[in-house]
Amino acid sequence: xxxxxxxxxxxxxxxxxxxxxxxxxxxxxxxxxxxxxxxxxxxxxxxxxxxxxxxxxxxxxxxxxxxxxxxxxxxxxxxxxxxxxxxxxxxxxxxxxxxxxxxxxxxxxxxxxxxxxxxxxxxxxxxxxxxxxxxxxxxxxxxxxxxxxxxxxxxxxxxxxxxxxxxxxxxxxxxxxxxxxxxxxxxxxxxxxxxxxxxxxxxxxxxxxxxxxxxxxxxxxxxxxxxxxxxxxxxxxxxxxxxxxxxxxxxxxxxxxxxxxxxxxxxxxxxxxxxxxxxxxxxxxxxxxxxxxxxxxxxxxxxxxxxxxxxxxxxxxxxxxxxxxxxxxxxxxxxxxxxxxxxxxxxxxxxxxxxxxxxxxxxxxxxxxxxxxxxxxxxxxxxxxxxxxxxxxxxxxxxxxxxxxxxxxxxxxxxxxxxxxxxxxxxxxxxxx
Length: 433
Known about the structure:
- By secondary structure, the protein is α/β, with parallel strands linked by helices.
- It is built from 14 helices and 16 strands.
- It has an 8-stranded mixed sheet with strand order 3-4-2-1-7-9-10-8. A 6-stranded antiparallel sheet has the order 12-13-11-14-16-15, with helices on both faces.
- The chain is globular.
- The two termini are 31 Å apart.
C-alpha cells in the first residue's frame, strides 16, 4: 500500500491512513514525504550550493516548526510526543550539519532523503501508540539501483526478504518510498516515479497479492478532470493501456511502476485516500475488448522534422538519425516517416541545439516548439474496424501535426499545437464517451 505526500500531508491525514492500513491483513506500507517537504529540502539544497547557510537555516527552522506542530497534533500521549520530537530533532540537526560543510550532489541526495525518513518514523510511532504491532523497514537496507540507474531487482528481492525474515510477526511494515542506494553504496533516489516505483518493485520482489497506489483522486479518469467536465474513473485497464496513459500524461501513475507489476502479473489498484470506499481503477493483464478506455495529454513537446532527398531508398538513414538522439541520451516519444523525411518528438530539450546541428548533416531540419501529444488508449487491434475512424472524426476540426498509429494495439497518439489541447480533449470526450 503506497500513500503519496498529500495522503500523509497532515496529522489528520496520517491518522486516516492508519485506519486504512489496519484492514486485518499483513500490509507493507510505502510512504512519501509529507506534502511540501521535498520542495523545502530542494530549496535548502539550493541555498547550500550557493554557500548561503543563513538562507538554508531559515528554511530549515521554518520546516522544523511545521513538523513540531504536526507532532503535537499526531500523538495523544506525552510519551509519544517526546519520541516524535526526538525523531524530528535528530533529523533536523543532521540537515543543519550540512550548512558547515562542502556541498555537492551527494550531500543533496542525503538531504532529499530526510522527508521520507521523517514521515515513516512519525507514522510508525503513531501505529505503536495505537497498540499496533508495526515495524520500520529501512529502504536504504534493501532498495538499490545499479550503475545504469536501473533497479537491481535481484539485490532488492534478496535483501528485502532478509529484512522481513529478521522481523517476523508484525501486522504492519512501514518503509520509505523514493529513496535507495546506488551501486557505490551512496544514498540516492529512484527519480522517475519515486514512491510509486518503490511500491511496484516491492510488490514484485514479494510476489504480493496486490499493489495499491493511494492518491487524492478516485482512480484513473477517462480524461483530464482539470480541463474536461464530467470525467469518470475507468474501472479496469490492462497493463499496456495504463502504461500508455501514464507515459503520455496521466499524472496519477508513473509509467515505470507498471513494468515490475506486469512482469510478475501482480494487479495494481489505484485508490483514493479521501474516498476510500470509491472503487478506483484496477490494472491487470485482462484486456477489455471493443472499447476506447481513456485519454491523456503530454505537454511541453518539441517536434523535429528532418527532410532529405538522400533518404530515397537509402538504408541506414534512420539508424544515423536515431544514433544522434542516443548519443545525447534523449528519448523519442513519437515517430512518423515518409519517403523524403522523418518527424520525431521529444520532451527533453536540454541538448536540442546540439541535436539539430548534428541532424543538419543529413538534411533540412525544422523545429516546432509548444506542441502537445494526445494519447487515446483502448482496444485498437486491426480487427476492430471503425475505432480509428471515430478518433479521426472527433478531431476533424483540429489541425494535426503528426499521427502515430499501429506501433501499439492499445494507443493512437496525435501531435497538436499546445493552444489546441483543451478543445481537443473536450472534442474527444464528447465524441468518444
